[in-house]
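Chain A, query sequence.
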Amino acid sequence: MKEPARILVVGGGYVGMYTALRLQRKLKRELRHGEAQVIVVDPEPYMTYQPFLPEAAAGSISPRHVVVPLRRVLPDCTVVIGEATAIHHGKRTATVRTLATEEEGTGTVDIHYDELVLAPGSVSRALPVPGLAEFGIGFKTVEEAIGLRNHVLEQLDIASSTRDPDVRDAALTFVFVGGGYAGVEALGELEDMARYAVRYYHNIAPEDLKWILVEATDRILPEVGEEMGKYAVRELRGRNIDVRLETRLDSCVDRIAALSDGSRFPTRTLVWTAGVKPHPILAATDLPLNERGRLKCTAALQVDGAEHAWSAGDAASVPDLTADRPGTECAPNAQHAVRQAKVLAENVAAALAGQPLTDYEHKYAGSVASLGLHRGVAHVYGRKLKGYPAWFMHRVYHLSRVPTFNRKARVLAEWILSGLFKREIVSLGSLENPRAEFKLAADTGRHPGAS
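Chain A, predicted structure.
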């Protein structure tokens, strides 16, 4: 009996999940008859729709509706919860560490494949800033988003109950480093939430909160264009948010944010969103990388010079065929990633059938960004929008892009309910340490004399 064609998809994010979803449809008959097999490997059992992380942090969307369960949307694929630690494409083998191998103490397992789709995405790029590793907070996963929400609300509780003015000032100072989508949208949503929450604190006023955005370049939100970027700065500053351009974070030792302009801010909240870098698995392969550590790919999304290897999204350097200037690459964003995944899946299926491949070609449509509730900026198909229309477009666009009708309906229902009722301002920080209460009880039980 002929062995099934085995397609290994490393990564369950935008590219990984959408590629597997498309392959599941294209190869439906082959998968049902055992002629093909699609294996998806990812450390998490879900795909995170990252544009909704700021709203999840602000409480506008439930965290479970920001993620899409891989097993539910990929019933005809084999989902392996684990992490690829090395790729030996010459041998068509991926070395994977799973929860089971850790429990068994066997270390790793090798997965053999015929076609490889390498789509691990990117990871936060943390610079060697003193104190950053100890006190910085990331904003790339749903766990980080919810942890940040709980943290901000806890700072309000600390500020409300302390009698030490230094502790209070540090608790009410929030520093965000990075003026891209993640930093600006997270700051905008959380500032909105905190300003609403302080109405329930008898001794904190909105003007007591100090929000600082630090950006190393001379503009924020470069994707929406210079004019809309300047508008976003004016909008944020109009809300008493301190936007510091051409400024870097030099240190955050002892919870003091020291900036390159000489400013020093004692703070208990430092959010780092200053860019991403390629996933470390790319360096653990025998595939060609460019100078920035991304996979060199052709317009057909094949890894250049490596047959049977494919990539797209953050991990891939893909030529932009619509650009006026030769040598331009597609921007590593969600708009390209979702469209590339469709072409990638079509090409993998075509390669298996011995059919010609299709080049990826998409002219960038523009960008939308939220600056908090009912505020936003957009530059789409040459049209510039700001304020409520841009915010509304932001919601409509991302609602149309979030995978599955189930998620669309739940997100829409939550938006409607949040418009009818008051915000939730409860911190559930104890969720991050669910065994703390029981551990305390158990320790007290061992020492009955303790009070």
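Residues 170 and 267 are 4 Å apart (CA to CA). The two ends are 70 Å apart (CA to CA).
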